[in-house]
Amino acid sequence: MSLQLLPLFFQALESYTLVDVHLKCQLLWHLKRIDRVIIKVGSLLNADEWPPLKVSGHSKSLENHGSIRVRGSQVSTKEQSDRSRKATFSHASYAAFRPAYPAVLYETITAYHAGSSSLCVDLGTGHGLVARALSPWFHEVLGTDPSPGMIQQARSLTPREQFANVNFEEASAESMPFLQASSVDMIVAAQAAHWFDCVKLFPEMERIVRKGGTLAFWGYGDHAFVGFPQATKILKHYADGDDSSLLGPYWSQPGRSIIEDKLRAIQPPREAWEDVRRIEYEFAAEGARSGTGTMFLHKRLTLGDCMKFIRTWSSFNAWQEVHPAAQSKEAGGLGDVVDEMFDRMRSVEPDWQSNGWEEIEVEIEWPTGLLLARKR
Length: 376
Fold this sequence. Notes:
Blueprint: H1 2-15, H2 21-30, H3 34-44, H4 59-65, H5 77-84, H6 91-97, H7 103-112, E1 119-123, H8 129-134, E2 140-145, H9 148-156, E3 166-170, E4 184-190, H10 198-208, E5 209-220, E6 224-225, H11 229-240, H12 255-260, E7 273-282, E8 292-293, E9 298-302, H13 303-310, H14 314-322, H15 337-348, E10 361-365, E11 368-375
Helix pairs in contact: 1-3, 6-13, 11-15
């Protein structure tokens, strides 16, 4: 079956126009194994899961308008929305198990901000976590997201009597015609900027953000288990491994590379943005808070909740699409890739082998990257 599909794969590649050369390179770069070819062909031939991206212009235009400087195509927020409509994606689980951000992160961002605080726009708002958190600092906060399901979740978690100044709108980050020019004081994006099409994003940011206004994008990579280096090593093996039975092949690129590299690839155009700062943290195996940089994101979770958090990963949802028969043990099945991952972790971590291990609490840390910029 694999060999029969290979001609279709190459025929599909050849059908792309010249402007899609980055997508061709990305596919050929990542498809190291025949089984991965089949996975990508399946996505390529399904326009709902992976629509062909038409990026106007050429490499010079990317430099002029702010670019993602990694090999591979731009990933649009429409593509993010398509993913979140998949049957395997749970908006409620995403809201319940994704980490919250500490007060010190918001204090860092607001301390950087200068001038008026009339309107803040939260791009890729998801379930509205950041929009709610920033509401005390601004007269009005608007959260946008291309996913109707996420907007519905955000509204349901944001009671009007408590957050009267917070509203939500279904929209992509790259196009918000309902916002007037120079009307936004701060633009933020939490664990979302790696999805954006920066070719279209930065012209829109330059239009809507006032002079002196703030851009604040941040995100986090794969977490580490503090004090459990073997478990962390297994997590990275499953997250990054090439085999189709693991999660590595199912990440969308270049978004995965961008977030793992702490958003360094996102470069605000110098002619429009100044005072660019980056605040980063990288985990170290020596123990809690032993990494380099400024740590923003850490949390104590039960192992059971860690499993549920991993099941909110986009790569896990893509893995489920390819392995629909694999049901989690919690759901009464024989186990999915997350069950297998934690079985392997428990085999090398003696402290995790007791009955009721799902309730064991562990400290986890995330590597993070915060990008700040000021509109000229």
